[in-house]
Amino acid sequence: MHLQADDDVRPTTETHPAGPPGPTAPADGPGLSARSTEPGDPGAAAAPSDSSFARRARTLVGQMTLAEKIASLHQAVPALPRLGLAAFRTGTEALHGVSWLGTATVFPQPVGLAASWDTDLVRRVGDAVATEVRAKHAADPTVSLNVWAPVVNPLRNPLWGRNEEGYSEDPALTAEIATAFCSGLRGDHPAFWKTVPTLKHFLAYNNEVDRAVTSSQLRPRVLHEYELPAYRGPVEAGVVGAVMPSYNLVDGRPNHVARELLDELRSWTPASLLVVSDAAAPSNLVEGERYFTSGAESHAAALLAGVDSFTDHDTDSGPTVRDVTAALEAGLLTEDDVDRAVVRLLELRLRTGELDPDLDPYASIPADAIDLPEHRALAREATAAGVVVLANDGILPLLGPDRAAPRQVAVVGPLAERVLHDWYSGTPPYLSDLGSALADRLSDAEVTVVDGADRIGLRARSTGTYLSVSEPDGTVTASAERCDLTAQLDVTDWGHGVVTLRSAATDALLSGGSWIVRADASRVGGWVAQETFRLHRHTDGAWSVQHVGSGRWLRVQHGSLTLVTDATTLEDAERFDLRTVRSGEAAVAEAAGAADVVVVAVGNDPHVLGRETEDRPDLDLPRASQEIWRAAVEANDRAVLAVVSSYPYALGDAAEQAAAVVWSSHAGQELGPGLTDVLVGDVEPTGRLTQTWVASTADAGDILDYDIVSAKSTYWYDETAPLYAFGHGLGYAGASYGRTTSPSSVEVVADGHVAPFDVSVEVTNTGDRPLHELVQVYVSLPDQHPAGRRRRLGGHHRVVLAPGESRRVEVTVDPASLATWDAHHDRWQTAPGSYRLDLGRSSVDVRSVESVEVVGPHAPSLGLGDTVSAIAFDTVRNLDLVPWSPLHGTALGVRRGARNGEAVYSRVDLEDVTEVRLSAARWSGSPGPSRDRATLSLVLPDGTRSGSLTLPAATEVWTEVVLPVPESARRLGDLTVRLEGSARIAHLDLAGPQV
Fold first, then answer.
1. Nearest-angstrom CA–CA distance, 280 and 476
2. Which residue among 278, 308, 454, 838 is the active-site one?
3. pLDDT by residue (tens digit) across 192-237?
4. Is 210 a catalytic residue?
5. Distances (CA, A) of 351 to 48, 88, 151, 191, 626
6. How far apart are CA 549 and CA 613, in angstroms?
7. What's this model's pTM, rounded to 2 decimal places?
8. What is the distance, to the nearest Å, from the Cα of residue 836 to the centroid of all Cα atoms in its chain?
9. What are residue 642's DSSP bridge partners?
10. Whole-number CA gyration radius for the chain
11. Contact status, residue 661 vs residue 390, Cβ threshold 8 Å
12. 737-754: buried (b, 16+ CB within 10 Å) or exposed (e) per residue?
């Protein structure tokens, strides 16, 4: 697009609620000269508060030259010693511990933390992470106290590569957990923040495939009911200081220039909220999305939309400065627009105590506050709390007063003795794996650990010698005459042909990152993993090896015999004869057969086949892991399947064959001890799933379809039977549910919502161990509700009961669980009727049912004089939400690849309506096969069709189109608008006779 200087895209002047308006531009308009002001910070003596920080920020901005202000818009902000401002940088990664800054405590992945359903625990984890960020900052003041965490995108689809980073499929639970984590990160001082959390990634971002150019379709109901609440909770709680937009587009408009969405976000809080771009997103507006033709246009649009800080070109601020300066010179921005962004940045910095070190209560945290004993203990507690027992025939716990301790235990599988990291993990001070932890705890038992990898040797046909790992740097050469230990490689298959090769002699992974292949890696890692390979078998039985990271094939050099990654074709690749030294499956079967119980530890490597930049190909366990499972369970039916993963799996037959199934996220340094605590029964299992484990990949649905209403996705709408339901998780004690109570009726009181209300149920521990019961309430909309069918979490409460104890448990029901977004009238509505309340242990394990009658007004039908947005449809076919203009509004147009489509608006009363006036235009961006046509027509409630009308040939010109309503069709019912070709519509007016 081309942005003109006189486009009406500039926001109104922002007045911070805590003080007077910010500085205004000179009368002669934007320029590049400095303002003449006296240096100093007169507000510094005021008591610290948001209002005093706002005044001080405006004062500081008033003393900065325009060039200094422009430079402050980049992530790497230069120092201004004359104003007491040090160099500054946004963004320290702290998703589940401090990332990329050396040794730090590594807590469970967010999806594992959330499985605790324990907000106090999550808050304490956030506080510990903030302490370690402060410690890093004490050691190096360039470490930012603005942390880029948490991720609050609801986990809509389990195929998403970044599933591990989110909390839950449910937006309300996501908001609850995120608020707790942010509370810990923020600290409890009223003015100064321990760190300043940043919510990621706003908005509707759940796919890695083409993530920077795909557009998420969000009808108003999905936007308001599903996507926005995950962000709104922590923002309204006042524990968030920044937000990062996501790379993608929403309804055809890039999120980094979606002013209406960012305005909505900022409307939830009176406090300052910094918006920081995602890395390279500003450049992507021009280069990848091609939404703008120049950096000046894109930077102007982003600033005007509400983006305050540009994360682009790493530490090089030159391109950002150039583009913003060009936008000012072209009149696309004013200096006030720049000021507004810089004020927000300075407010964030003031909150961290940067300019008030003597008053900052967190400034005393020392540089050595890393890996504290209490953080180790918390990591173990958090790991155990996030373990979910998915199935159990009684084999667990392994220890107990009523059972003998096993004398022989086998721990097998690729994760039996490995603790793996994800991209946002820090560097843990130590690692404790499951096999070692079980051996330590079961000290009287013989614990055998087998990883299940095939041990092989590769003999190069070009030399007749085996690949061998050389000391001291691990260089791999085809130099071994015999397949001794230095020539042996352990092959772990992670699925879809991707393997890792580990030296049996050194325990190091082979890596192709430096052209010469070396066994020098302790784990798979890096933005582009260099430690993964593919094995290709030729028709003559020979094997070739491809390095996944570079796409090149391995070749043995002449002379040096060094193994290198430089063959560009399979024909040029070395051919190897593969010798199996040891069968992994046979070793697993042998260990399992000799054991009293076998624990099979399988799952994913977080850098392989599912991570940032790569969605999962399917939900199945890797084929090799399935075979390891079969080998174990066929040798010993007392087999526990321990899944350690970043996401759910469709387990297939294994779910039925296992004596028990247990899940943990990649939980960091305390994975082994925390998981062992639950397996042996030292800790009661309290984890519950925060996302559904569907039964098959097909049940996950289309990862690019964000309209959960029409797609019937998430547990809110999904009608397929899950493998393990949302909220599911077993304890080691039984529970019975008795009498329930609930109010017979509730009234709509304000903003279309009822007041919170309580339901209660009597719960009894029927076992001989303590019961940690998570009582859950699910709310179903009434039959014949205008929004159709929906069932969602309404509330939850945990209770701990001694054996035989009974107690009445009260659960507060969230009013939002009864409300729906009335897109016709752009407001919340809780329709009158009988709402079903399911009380139980998960979304499908219902133990008691109640109902509550909502008393309140029905949503009015659309009728004479009403104007309704075109996107407020009830059902739609082959239409997409598209921009009304490049920077404002949303309209409907025919979907890519379709010739026509239609939108249906229900409950439209045409009794006195004589015509429907549509705001319509051709869409130059229409990619459909009928783009030269642009026609509209109506189907009226009686089924008759109002005449078709073709739009004028002028492109992008909005015009009013009038379609008559015959008297015979003037009744209550569905109104359907049909579009063909490049036609698009923005709104509908229901009009009567002209007077």
1. 37
2. 278
3. 999 999 999 999 999 999 999 999 999 999 999 999 999 999 999 9
4. no
5. 9, 14, 22, 7, 52
6. 13
7. 0.94
8. 30
9. 601, 662
10. 30
11. yes
12. beebebeeebebeeebbb
